[in-house]
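Morning!

This is the sequence you dropped in the shared folder:
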Amino acid sequence: MSGAWGWGAVLFWLLAWALNSWLARRHGKNRAVQMFIPALFGVTLLVLWEGLVRGLNVSPVILPTPLAIAARIADSLPVLWLDFNQTILKGALGGYLIGCGAAVVVAVLIDRSPFLQRGLLPVGNFVAALPIVGIAPILVMWFGFDWQSKAAVVVVMVFFPVLVNMVAGLAATDALQRDQMATWSANYWQGLFKMRLPAAMPFLFNGLKIATTLALIGAIVAEFFGSPTRGMGFRISTAVGQLDLPLVWAEIAVAALAGSAFYGLMALIEKGVTFWHPSQRGRG
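The structure's back. Tokens below.
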């Protein structure tokens, strides 16, 4: 019986792969098909995972099945919501907003000051290269064990990627555009808001999308070094010690879904803000 699970999953995966290939060739430009193909691909991976784990009699301590993880999510909704609120809504989102907002402001200051451009950016590259496992314990000691220390870790992680992209975006305008603003007697702030900030938006959103994943990673990892009795990182570390792998994977699934939704929200906002950019027009 267990072998039938494995062979059935492999057969389903092959059939779904063939269907996806046919749809991509024949109807690849259809919007509904473009959404259906990745959804079917994800379902095939889950079915293959379920079948192989059951077919090979893998212990749930090593790798639980997707159905076992889904059942644990359904049984642990209050705990998962408590952890989601602590880690995502407080630590990750709070640090993301503070770090990204500060990066935009500092990028404008750097743009106004060649001294800061030569002095701060190299320091930023150095700080960005610091390992999170090294700075997280220090920030936890400075800011305490609640969500504030996790937000501080997130600020450090997202600040410099957004800063570098924003500085590059502010420098993206060419000399002809700047000369045209000068002929209109525009001052610095008029040129900034009417020309350079709009031109920097594609660069800024690249940094913001990168920062979405960094924020989640930073908040969860920071909780490994000290946290109250709630939070995704705290729950994962304690569940591993108790060999409760379904709960570990449930937390991972919630974090992955939250990260995907966060990234998708940034991409949607980017599409509305930079509708004029050729990359957005090309997506139709």
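Headline: The longest helix spans residues 77-112.

More detail when I'm at my desk.
O.
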